[in-house]
Amino acid sequence: MKKIAVLTSGGDAPGMNAAIRAVVRKAHYHKIDVVGVYYGYEGLYNGNFELLDLGSVGGIIQRGGTMLYSARFPEFKETEMQNKAIENLRKEGIDGLVVIGGDGSYRGAMALTEKGFPCVGIPGTIDNDIPGTEYTIGFDTALNTAVEAIDKIRDTATSHENTFIVEVMGRNAGDIALWTGLAAGAETVLIPEEEFEIEDIVARLERSAARGKRHSIIIVAEGVMPGHKLGKILEERTGVQIRVSVLGHMQRGGAPSARDRVLAGRLGARAVELLLEGQAGRAVGIQNHAVVDYDLKEAYENEHKADVSLYTLSKELSI
Amino acid sequence: MKKIAVLTSGGDAPGMNAAIRAVVRKAHYHKIDVVGVYYGYEGLYNGNFELLDLGSVGGIIQRGGTMLYSARFPEFKETEMQNKAIENLRKEGIDGLVVIGGDGSYRGAMALTEKGFPCVGIPGTIDNDIPGTEYTIGFDTALNTAVEAIDKIRDTATSHENTFIVEVMGRNAGDIALWTGLAAGAETVLIPEEEFEIEDIVARLERSAARGKRHSIIIVAEGVMPGHKLGKILEERTGVQIRVSVLGHMQRGGAPSARDRVLAGRLGARAVELLLEGQAGRAVGIQNHAVVDYDLKEAYENEHKADVSLYTLSKELSI
Amino acid sequence: MKKIAVLTSGGDAPGMNAAIRAVVRKAHYHKIDVVGVYYGYEGLYNGNFELLDLGSVGGIIQRGGTMLYSARFPEFKETEMQNKAIENLRKEGIDGLVVIGGDGSYRGAMALTEKGFPCVGIPGTIDNDIPGTEYTIGFDTALNTAVEAIDKIRDTATSHENTFIVEVMGRNAGDIALWTGLAAGAETVLIPEEEFEIEDIVARLERSAARGKRHSIIIVAEGVMPGHKLGKILEERTGVQIRVSVLGHMQRGGAPSARDRVLAGRLGARAVELLLEGQAGRAVGIQNHAVVDYDLKEAYENEHKADVSLYTLSKELSI
Amino acid sequence: MKKIAVLTSGGDAPGMNAAIRAVVRKAHYHKIDVVGVYYGYEGLYNGNFELLDLGSVGGIIQRGGTMLYSARFPEFKETEMQNKAIENLRKEGIDGLVVIGGDGSYRGAMALTEKGFPCVGIPGTIDNDIPGTEYTIGFDTALNTAVEAIDKIRDTATSHENTFIVEVMGRNAGDIALWTGLAAGAETVLIPEEEFEIEDIVARLERSAARGKRHSIIIVAEGVMPGHKLGKILEERTGVQIRVSVLGHMQRGGAPSARDRVLAGRLGARAVELLLEGQAGRAVGIQNHAVVDYDLKEAYENEHKADVSLYTLSKELSI
């Protein structure tokens, strides 16, 4: 193997640049060339390639977003698209591909691998929803962004004794909501993985008010329902004005946290090693504090599960 | 004068605590006691008072929100409410009152002054909309919060080449939008003080796209229209998906910036001096880098004007 | 068990307050009272106690430092000091003690346990040097503080093409240096656990310079040697001016990161459970993503080991 | 005028990139080309030039440091160096030069202007020590960096009841120390502009201790004396351990604050206008909230004065 390629795909996540940097530097350590593919699978199809030297990845470890850009390209599930991509890669003398993205991106990587082009997947998404790895690149940064925002919201909630609903991201996963809720000391956390009764929230609000505490923060994962919808329901039930804040896309950006950068470094380096070892169709991840690798299919065929013990803890600590 | 009181009123703003601290410490420097009034004018009416010593204001200079809490209390425009408040103050041996808040809060202070109880106003609001002072306490922090959020949003906008609308606060004033837009390098800024044509925004988006730049950030002040409404209009006109982010209440919180803390220190100290000098019905402010004071009425009878030169600059720099 | 106590001891760490909060709230969940001990073991000896209700721990989850204060109190290794402490605890009807601190603090907890007073230890130190737990409370925050500082230093290093040495904390452990180095993309990392040759650093600096890259960041753990000393050695050997920055005590403070708050919540809650289960002389920790507990002695009799694989990775990525 | 050049010189400051961006965009607005000069005056002498289009300054508004690099080049005071620089500029068809830097950099700009090549100066330095402008670009960011660091140090100072000395930058000016001290609520601030007696500091420390407050923060400007030296003196006098933290070069870096970015935008745009108006040998600045310009010589022949009223305020508020 003399030359590999790297691309980012799906929603961007802080730390993707740090992962690209690790792929490039680790490859150079082994005297392998690296080609960057712009715009994810669309760029693979269009042959939008550029050779990345050490200078190309200078000063990017601390930047959010992805220097290779990302794009949704659902057409890539078609066979002819995939064939064209492999043709483009071969023409450039490229023998392996590192895909940084979410579980959707892994499907494309598996398709190419099955057609004989070796790919390795690196989990890059803020949602932390990829089976087989305890953490995904970007999750820790998104958490800190959400928690810092809620710390600010709490200032004003406390000063005015208001109840706030804060909607956080996570698609169908409750990880961001759950960890954010624990870290921000939220009074209530709603995640898609756990059923809840509006009655219970109302009762909790009333119990707090009775105890003299009139401000409260409710975190709701976007996978449960929109924050504004929940706000309307609760206002109708309690007769109290509820304020709603939707944190939105700022959760996807920002300088990656220390933890996300180290994770990106470890996973990026391991991905290159796997290709050099002749492995294909593998995803890298972190488990028990160690870097692991497993079949790409496990990542999208299995179901991600949020850590339910945190949910119980959250309830106990927010009495 | 042996004892004065201090309260915070209206929307809270970062730096209010630093202003309370300055009032207390400056008063102690002159051997004057300070009584804190909880919940603004409501607390004045209810006699919700507590003596504040130096220890009470330890460790608050860096905290958002207000340790005295705030509340809306429209009933305070009634004469009997005001009389009761003065009665409560006199009963405690209090001879002067410092009110930290926005222009609405100043009306209450003027009413009390006209009834013979000397009040001084300190401008505390993120909106920067109080005539007579170049800056209000909290504005600088809100700016930095908004700019940091947009820096994060830009990461993802750039990675995906999306157009984003970001709605910022400011009530009827465009200051937050204007300064934030300049500082964040926004492509378009919409403020209530300046008319605009949807056509122009559409044309600008198309011009950028033609130049190959497909991501764009539009800042809209809440006083213009809701971000989501603007998003719908632009989507209909351009046929392109527009993402909307409403920064919301996090703009009110957070540790105050260095500038807001210094401003709070200067204005808080001056407010105490004014009361000691026997002045009443005055507002403090900053002009030409110096602390000034002026009739409270000027603050709410005049109209705040955003700096139009910044608007022109914003247009020239975002070609 | 009806009443337990909690104290913080040794160097303070961000997240100690979040741990105190978790202890108090989890205990209240089980209808147990909690007494806070001020100034660590010194306060235990002096009977400096205060009952902590839910309100006492309101608004502290996001604050650095420790609301219970900390103090060095080496005299506590004397038997009569320990007896007096137990006497004080018994007199208040306290049946168990949670100690938040480093390995030194664990010795005191073990001594009390051996005298019949059940104690549990929570690892609170930025140094990450406690055997038996993968992470200590405060480590993640200290990392992020160090990395953000180095991001800023890199701005100026790059602009002027200077070489910088940055000294970070960690006592005898290299964890902060190692993780910070990886996350900040440092060119060289020196930790106490790994020998190094000055020649190698000089050669690396010269190699970089030959490649046209004239700025460089060297992270040195305080356990290796003072940054200024290393600076002098390198200046003599290379003839090039080297700038030195000692990050210092800011690494101990600041709002805890999301990760540290969640860790503090989990460990604080588990510590209370252990006491309720009648266990004594245990330390809580995190391993393989799960909360564990083990004999307090293991924490100070075993030796902490930094993750050497990260050191190798750091070298490979900084070619 | 069809083409102008821009360079950064002297110590770098956050916001220099925002100023470069404003120069480039404003020039393009007027259909003028802009050439970037790398490495300050050294690059002017060496002809190290590059044409900057709108894309060159994309995504730099939020970055610390300077994309044009900076360098000390004392040789530039020699006439032949200056002649060569003008020759290089003329050869490229460049008719004007914008210099972003401190007062030292202004001398070079004046020398070129006197030889017939029109230059304009923009004040870029964290030290805020340029006469004729109330603020320099970078000062506000450095303040916030210092204040955030001291907020963290205060956490640990409070927890352990230690006295800390924090040394901040500013060369011969006390502005950073003075504003930082006020914003961080420091107990003592020492600046080069005001004499002080060690006795007074000792007395203040003892007074605080007697009042039961045993932690204290002393800010010392680097222009007064090194922090470690002051620490030794105070330890000898009080017999109490004093901790010292030297904030160092991190004060020069980091994403510029909102205020610094707006200031950079305003001054950068005005500098271009001045050249277009045919003016030369002018410095731009901010006074009374408005952009002004004045003779470059005033900037280095006059003496900068810190605002003494802030020093008095600082003393009154830290009783």
From TrEMBL, chains A, B, C, D:
Tell me the GO BP annotations in alphabetical order: canonical glycolysis; fructose 1,6-bisphosphate metabolic process; fructose 6-phosphate metabolic process
What gene name is given for the protein in this entry?
Answer: pfkA
Report the EC number(s), separated by commas if there are several.
2.7.1.11
Keywords assigned by UniProt, alphabetized:
Allosteric enzyme, ATP-binding, Cytoplasm, Glycolysis, Kinase, Magnesium, Metal-binding, Nucleotide-binding, Transferase
Q: What cofactor does this one take?
A: Mg(2+)
Instruction: Outline the extent of the Phosphofructokinase domain.
Output: 3-275
Q: Which organism is it from?
A: Metasolibacillus meyeri
Per UniProt, where does Mg(2+) bind?
A: 103
What is the protein name for this chain?
ATP-dependent 6-phosphofructokinase
